[in-house]
Each structure stands twice: as structure tokens, then as C-alpha cells.
Amino acid sequence: MTELDEIDVRLVRALVVDARQSASALGKMLGLSQPATWRRIRRLEDAGVLKAKRLRLNAEKLGFGVTVFLGIKLATKGRVSLEDFERAVSAIPEVQTVEHVLGLYDYRLRVVARDLPDFERVLRRRIMTLPGAGEVEANVLLSEERLAGPL
Q1: SS3 74
Q2: Under a CB-based contact definition with an 8 Å cutoff, are residues 94 and 111 in contact?
Q3: What range defines the domain where residue 108 resides?
């Protein structure tokens, strides 16, 4: 675990809200110079606290109005390698995240589609035809709140 001081915590919180902020703007908010702020950001990146700056797309504005979470239980455990399944499911453009989980299902997927008929097509033609795909449970996303994180 990386030790963070109060300024580091405030810096991380500010970056969670908007990672596009300049080191100069962040420094003004934190009472630091731009170079000092930049050094802190680099130290947090080097320590692995800050992993990446990601762009979040608005799927609905891009025509993908349905998000579905799928729980997938592999049909033939041990006969299909997890890596093969993960590689195949990750190649499906509508699959946004692939999570190997513990519990009732082996995998949890976040899938976007234009509408429910489009989701059904993705499910039947792409996901259910994957090697090892077995039992599936679908949960349609109704609303989503973005949480800042553990800090």
C-alpha cells in the first residue's frame, strides 16, 4: 500500500472528478506550484496509484441505448481455458468489460447495444456461440451513478 499524505488525497480526488485538469490548475487549488504538482502526479503514477487517464464515452449519445450486465457460467470448466474464453469475449465490440469473478457465475460482462433486439442479436450470435459459454443471466441497467472511489 502506498502512503498518501493529505495533499496526495486531495490531488487524487480532484483528478477523479476531472483527469483533464492541468498541473497548474491543480496546483492553484492545492496551494502548490505547477512543478511541485507535476512531481506529485508523476510519483503517484510511478507508484501505480494513478493507473491511466481514460476517456468515458456517453454510449447513449453514440446510439447505444441499452446496457446489460451478463453473468456467464462456463459450461465445460476445465475443458475450455479461461484465457481462450476471455480472448474470444474481449474481441466482441459490444462487450465493454470482462470480469472473472467468484460466485454463482464465472464471468461478469458489461454489454452495450443499440436496443433490446440488437442486444438479443449480440447475445445469440456472438456471446452464446463462444466456446464454453453456458448458463447466462442478464440484468438490464436502468440507471447508473458514478462513485468517486474509495478516497
Answers
A1: strand
A2: yes
A3: 66-140
- Name the pTM for this structure: 0.74
Q: In 3D, which of 149, 76, 59 has the Cα closest to residue 110?
A: 59
Contact predicate 99/108, CB 8 Å: yes
Type of residue found at 89: V
Residues in the chain: 151
CA gap 105, 70 in Å, rounded: 9
How many domains in the chain? 2
Q: Find the DSSP H helices in 18-95.
A: 23-30, 34-46, 82-90
Whether 77 has a pLDDT exceeding 90, the answer reads no
Claim to verify: residue 101 and residue 132 sit in the same structural domain: yes
The C-alpha torsion from 58 through 61 and 65 to 71, rounded to 10°, is -20
Positive or negative, the Cα torsion across 57, 63, 69, 71? negative
Q: Taking all residues of the chain, what is their mean pLDDT, rounded to a whole number?
A: 91
| DSSP designation for 21 | -
